[in-house]
Amino acid sequence: MSTKNVLTIGILAHVDAGKTSLTECLLHAAGATVQAGSVDKGSAITDALALEKSRGISIKASSINFNWKDTQFQLVDTPGHIDFAAEVDRSLSVLDAVILVVSAKEGVQAHTLNLWESLKERNLPVIIFFNKIDRDGVYPEQVFSDFQKELQAPLFALNSPNITEGQYSLTAFEKSVNLAENPILNQSIENLAEHDEEFLEQYLEENLDDPKDIVKQAIPHLKKGNLYPALFGSAKLGIGIEALLKNMELLIPSDQKYYSTPSAKVFKVELHDKMGRLAYIKSYGSTLKTKDSILSQQLEQDIKINQIYKAETTGFNQVNELHAGEIGLITTSEIIQSGDILGNQELDDEFTKISNAVLAVEVKAVEDKNYQKLGEALEILNMEDPILDFKWFKEEREFHIKILGPIQTEVLKDSLEQRWDIEAEFLPPKVVYKETPSKSAEGYVRYWMPKPCWAIMTFKIEPGPSGSGTQFTNHVRTSDISQKYINEVKRAIPWTLKQGIHGYEVTDIHITLIKGEEHSVHSNPGDFLLATPMGIMRGLENAGTDLLEPMYAFEIKAHQELLGAVSSDLSQMQAQLESPFFDEEYFILKGRVPVAKSMNYPIKFNATTSGKGRLKFKLDGYEKTALTEDKERAYRGVSPLDESQWILHMRGAFKADERMMT
Predict the structure, then answer these.
(1) Which of 231, 471, 554, 603 has the fewest CB atoms in 10 Å of its CB?
(2) Can you name the residues that pair with 159 across neighbouring β-strands?
(3) How far is CA 241 from CA 110, 129, 168, 235, 652, in A?
(4) Crossing angle for the helix pair 643-661 and 483-496, nearest 10 degrees?
(5) Would you state the torsion angle of the CA atoms of residues 594, 595, 600, 601, taken in this order, to the nearest 10 degrees?
(6) Helix axis angle, 197-204 relative to 211-224, nearest 10°?
(7) Which of 285-294, 333-342, 627-636 is the least confident region?
(8) Which residues are listed as membrane-spanning (predicted)?
(9) Comparing C-alpha atoms, which of 491, 512, 511, 495 is closest to residue 437?
């Protein structure tokens, strides 16, 4: 077991707040690099992809290690753009703590709100770093106050900025003697007084002569999360980096627990040019070693660890073992996916996701000769980013993927050109609807020809409550259908519901197996695997399905003079509006709007507000909507009523999914 503390810290922020620059400064200040990398110059260590260097943004989450005092820090730099939020979701699942970077110029932005909600839900320790204090027009007291008010987060500043005629410096709280003259430090003291009765007495008696003693009394509350530590600085100028490094020990949880048996979580997979398929894992148990075998819960089989690497500033360093809490990269003989759990422990991540793909696009090769090559490249991209949910319809020669936004398609297009020399065309995105049963009905299937095969079942299909997903109940006795065949029925249901009678995923459905029989000679597991989709789809045909439309919850903040124009735009999009809330010269407006009506609204909103407004979208469930011509099918399938075609179709689907999974 490693003798050092091991801490995995995520660097999170809204796009362009300076995450990667801060990461590079921390590495340099800790002595891990000779010179801090630059995003502008394309020399940032954590932006390794050519696309990241050319665009100056983070696209993939990256992990890198460095040591500081008695702690091994594992920094995870995440993308800031909402279109790559799936990378943030996967990273959040392995973080011990977070540095949330906020631009002191722009303040709280839309994605800052999304990130804060996730951090609060997971109860992760966090330091807020107000970056870019060197920018013109920065008002530190205002951004400090706005953060507290908008996020309901009591802050305790560990330093405060001094900005005089273009000169920037910082005063550490413990060295400040004129607390009453400093609004930031004075607000911090008031926040501490609200959470500490002993300190409240000192505060009321104005017995605040020793700043060091004040910080000492604040530390327990900072560690418990009653107060959030805040620091000011500039990654560009290297200001405040030493103070951040010094105070990162506040993020070390006191209750880190690991298992006595080998356990790990796969949070990222990538295809490396030289080393092949690499799986990023975090260990949560006893030491993992090269050549060890460990259970893959997704594959339901043991896999062998061939090599183990660690991401260092100099590149990937091969090691023989991985200790509890450490992040490493492994190669295996089996194809494991992001989200897989290794070992017997339950490490599932049940928290709300920031990313929800509700748009689908069709991808075409500009040159027909690249058709096969494009399909294989998209399979690799889907392996690296499962949210794409890649579908390859070979009969129609079509490729379909799901996306989070238009920037993602631009990056995918560039990636196909740079990595595989494929020029691809992305058709305009379509909204991904869902289906749910309109009423209760039954679906009967008798799959018994040509022999040897035998699977007879009757399913009852019922609509479920909104947001309930898929539920399955078995009412058939094991004397009629053996448990091993029931397991195949359960296995087939997720595949079955990927396409309903209108071509969309089916949800909010309750499926009950009410009758059935097997044959002692002719039945085999594959019969029930193939028959289940036929029975369920017939039940859906009999029940009919309603279309479910994805809805965004929105929050808008802009100047009061724009309320009329914004409200008019939202009304035209059939938005459901709440009463506006007024905050000085600004208004805050919340509500819900159909995704299909609001896909292009961010562009118009930025134009209306001259880029000074804030618009936050978040998927907020689904509502029933009428099936119209403009709501075309997102995916094409084979009609379930043509049994021979359906069997071939499902066999192909099973093989395709098994190829992706195993």
Answers:
(1) 603
(2) 172
(3) 26, 10, 14, 7, 55
(4) 90
(5) 50
(6) 150
(7) 627-636
(8) none
(9) 511
The pLDDT of residue 456 is above 90:
yes
Backbone angles phi, psi at 427, to 5 degrees: -70, 160
- DSSP E strands, 355-452: 359-365, 391-393, 398-403, 424-426, 430-431, 434-437, 441-447
- With a CB cutoff of 8 Å and minimum separation 6, the contacts of 450 are none
Rounded to 10°, the helix 601-608/563-572 angle is 160
Sheet holding 71-77, edge to edge: 62-68, 71-77, 5-13, 97-103, 126-131, 228-232, 155-157
Q: Which two tokens stand for residue 647?
A: 């069997």
**Per-position DSSP letters for 326-377, written without gaps between them:** -EEEEEESS---TT-EESSS-----SPPS----EEEEEEESSGGGHHHHHHH
Say if CB 339 and CB 90 are below 8 A apart: yes
Sign of CA dihedral 114, 120, 126, 128: positive
pLDDT at 531: 93
Of the segments 9-23, 46-60, 389-403, 557-571, which one has the largest average pLDDT value? 557-571
470 or 167: which carries more pLDDT confidence? Answer: 470
Cβ atoms 558, 514 nearer than 8 A: no
Q: Burial letters for 19-41: b for 16+ Cβ neighbours within 10 Å, e otherwise?
A: bbbbbbbbbbbbebbeebbebee
* Amino acid (1-letter code) at residue 239: I
At residue 608, the 3 state secondary structure works out as: helix
Residue by residue, DSSP assigns 209-227 as --HHHHHHHHHHHHHHTSS
Residue labelled with tokens 């995440």: 78
Q: Is 299 helix (H, G, I), strand (E, B) or coil?
A: coil
Phi, psi of 391 (to 5 degrees): -125, 130
Q: 168-177, 492-501, 571-580, 616-625: which has the minimum mean pLDDT?
A: 168-177
How do 126-131 and 97-103 pair as beta strands? parallel
Q: Would you say 400 and 353 are in contact if contact means Cβ atoms under 8 Å apart? A: no
Decide: helix, strand or coil at residue 135: coil
Cis check: omega of the bond before 450, within 30 degrees of 0: yes
pLDDT for position 638: 40
Mean pLDDT over each residue of the chain, to the nearest integer: 86
Looking at residue 14, the DSSP 8-state letter turns out to be S
458-481 tens-digit pLDDT: 999 999 998 899 999 999 999 999
Q: Is 50 exceeded by the pLDDT of residue 551?
A: yes
Measured between alpha carbons, how far is 405 from 411 in angstroms, rounded to an integer? 11
Nearest to 269 by CA among 328, 348, 336: 336
506 class by beta-carbon count within 10 Å (0-12 exposed, 13-18 middle, 19+ buried): buried
Residue type, 253: P
State the distance between the two ends of the chain, measured CA to CA, in whole angstroms. Answer: 32
pLDDT at 267 over 60: yes
- Across 529-558, average pLDDT: 94
Q: What is the DSSP letter of 105?
A: T
Neighbours of 651 (CB within 10 A): 13
What is the tens place of the pLDDT at every residue in 207-249? 777 888 888 999 999 998 999 999 999 998 899 999 999 888 8
Residues in the chain, total: 662
Q: Which two tokens stand for residue 42?
A: 């394309």
DSSP 321: E
Note the pTM of the prediction, 2 decimals: 0.82
- What whole-number distance in Å separates Cα of residue 331 and Cα of residue 328? 10
